Structure formats: structure tokens, C-alpha cells
Amino acid sequence: MTRRIIDPSPGLSRRLQEYILLPGKIPAGISTEAVDISSPLTKFERGKEPSLRLNIPVLSSPMQSITGPEIAIEMAKLGGAGVIFCSQPVKDEANMVRRVKEYKAGFVMPDVFSPDTPLKEVQKRIEEKGYSTFPITEDGMPNSRLTGYLTRKDFDPQLHSNLKVRDRMITMERLHYSSLGDVTDERGEIDLNKALGILRDSHHGSLPILDDQGKLCYVVFRRDVEEHAKNPLELIDQRKRFICGAAINTHDYRERAEAVIDAGADFLVIDTSQAHSEYVEICLRYVKERFEDIPVIAGNIVTGEGFKFLVENGADSIRVGMGSGSICITQEQINVCLLYTSPSPRD
Residues near 2 by Cβ (< 8 Å), separated by ≥ 6? Predict the structure, then answer.
């Protein structure tokens, strides 16, 4: 149930109550562990599973002040999902999505360098990105033959600024690594538990995984695998990457949708104040035809007619509500009728 109380009287503060949950009857013998709060994020046929299901029924809002990569990562760890905001350049939003998809509790492909890269360039990347472990491949490209390893501890930014990576990197003779077969289960899928077992036995913080030709496939970080174990409800895709959504608008949606999907976005959110419009209809029809396998959430609407309109145009899920934030003025801008009531003395 949702109840709204707004008091416009002079001298009284405006108060807003958004979500009030009605408790139901509790059966005997039930425990909190037995309660399933997972929720389908997208429409589905009766008797079938949705394409996306949240382990906790919470999405973070696609607002600039709320959902960046850090919040999206934390939401996925807890079992929900974050939606990266679209009020920024297309390239920046795509990079944020990419950061979420690359930061997963499992097998990752971090930035790589070649042996001829100047160490000052490596230091610049450390300062920009914050992480400091880099595989070294023969041509400086991912999925190439591994020739060494470099961490922040292997060089001094001032003392070694004129040297190259090859002068300070850990060579293959000293490097601890594993083959892809060592971390693959009987079904041929990569297994985080096997990787963690190797890491624990080696006492190292990370483990490069190579194929039969010595090419780099993944790097497994101890802290990521341990985080995975601490978050049993985390929301991940088939490649063990965190689920992440991305918002698009009704202006540059062609370019933006393609960019964020290429970056790995699992679903799109058409983010508008009032979605019962021809602009949203055009945008929604385009993205559903162009990216038919990507779920699309559309909104916002507050009427049954608007809900039906979005469903008929292909929306997989609907955002219901309008002007619920403390600084949102959508209702005033489009002249939505508000019901004003005075609080009772008991309030």
C-alpha cells in the first residue's frame, strides 16, 4: 500500500510517506531463512522463469547523485541491481557500465601492458584506476601470451620512472600461474572454488589463468573470490559478472543504447518523467527491434492507460510513480492533481 500525506499549510513542514508495507498472517514454524524475497525484474509467461530475477527486490535509481559504478557493484553484491544514469556523455556512461561488469567476484581480464611500456605510464594508470596488478603480455593486448607480471610493489615511481616494464616485472620463471583446465569443472565451466583452493595453497593475492598456448585467459583475485563467498545472494550473469542496468533517454537513444550494451549492460531503462508519450513509444519500439534479447524497463507512469501503452509497445517491465523524490517537480510541471490532507493530532 502507498499513502501520500502532504501538508501545504503555512508554518508546517511538508511530510511525505512513500512505502508502507501491510503485514500478512505469519504461518507457524516459518523462519526468516525460509522467506524468499526474490522478484522477477521482467515479464514472463506463467510457469516459466523471467529472463532477469532480482535476489532482493531493489533497484537503485538511475540518478547522477545516486548510482555510479560503486553503488551498482554494491547493489549486485547484495542481490539487487544498479542502473547507471544517462545524464552524461555516452562514452562516460558506457565506461561506468564496463567498470561494473569488469569488477566481478571471479574471473577477470584486467588492464595489461607490454614489456616495452614505460613505467611512468603504468604509474599513471594506477593513479587513474586505483588498482595496481597488471599482467604483461608480449604485445600488450588481452588474450595474448603472458610474459610477466607487475604490481605496485615491483617499482618505485620516482626511482624507476625512466625504466620500462621489462626492467622490473616478475618473469615467468618466478611467476605462479595455473592452466584453464585446473579451474574447470566436469561440465567444462570455470569453477571459483577450485581457483580459491589454488590461491590459498599458493599464498598469493592473484592467480593468472593461461590456456594451452600460454595465452592469458583470466586473472583471479583472492579478495574477489572471498567477497563472492561472503555474498551468497549476489546477482551475477552466466560469466560470473555482476548484473548492471543502464539508463537511456529519448534523444540520443540509438547511440547510447548500442554503447552501453556493447559495454555489457544486462538491461536498459528508458528514463523519463512521463513515459506516456510518443517520444517513449518511438524509443521503446526502436530498442526492442534493434536489441530484441535485451530487457527494457520503461517509465515513469501513474495511470492504467499509461501502463497498457508501454506494455503494448514492448516494455518488459514498468516503472510506476511520479515525483516521489524530495526535489522532484514533475507533478507540478505537468499539473498532476495532488490530494492535500492535514495530519491528525496523533500524527
Answer: 18, 19, 20
Question: How far apart are alpha carbons 253 and 92 in whole angstroms?
Answer: 15
Phi, psi dihedral angles at 144 (to 5 degrees)? -110, 175
Instruction: For 134, list phi and psi in degrees, rounded to 5.
Output: -135, 120
**342-345: long-range contacts at Cβ-Cβ below 8 A with a sequence spacing of 24 or more?**
342/7, 342/9, 343/5, 343/7, 343/15
Residue type, 277: S
Cβ(219)–Cβ(135) below 8 Å: yes
- Cβ atoms of 8 and 14 within 8 Å: the answer is yes
The sheet carrying 178-179 orders its strands as: 107-108, 216-221, 206-210, 178-179
Tell me the pLDDT tens digit for each residue of 158-216: 999 999 999 999 999 999 999 999 988 887 777 777 888 888 888 788 999 999 999 99
Q: Per the structure block, which three cell numbers stand in for 86?
A: 544517462
Instruction: Indicate the Cα dihedral angle 63, 67, 69, 74, nearest 10°.
Output: -170
Q: Which residues pair with 35 in a beta bridge?
A: none
Instruction: Give the residue carrying C-alpha cell 492535514.
Output: 342
Residue with cell 540509438: 254
Q: How confident is the model at residue 2 (pLDDT cuts 50, 70, 90)?
A: very low
Closest CA to 239 of 101, 79, 55, 80: 101
pTM: 0.66
Give the pairing type, strands 216-221 and 245-248. Answer: unpaired
Q: What is the rounded distance in angstroms from the CA atom of residue 143 to the CA atom of residue 126? A: 21
Distances (CA, A) of 1 to 21, 54, 321, 323: 6, 21, 13, 17
Q: Which amino acid is at 134?
A: F
CA angle 338, 343, 345 (to 5 degrees): 170
Within 8 A by CB and 6+ apart from 181, the residues are: none
Chain-wide mean pLDDT for the chain?
A: 86
Q: How far apart are CA 146 and CA 213, in angstroms?
A: 10
Cell of 162: 625512466
The DSSP H or E segment spanning 120 is helix 119-129
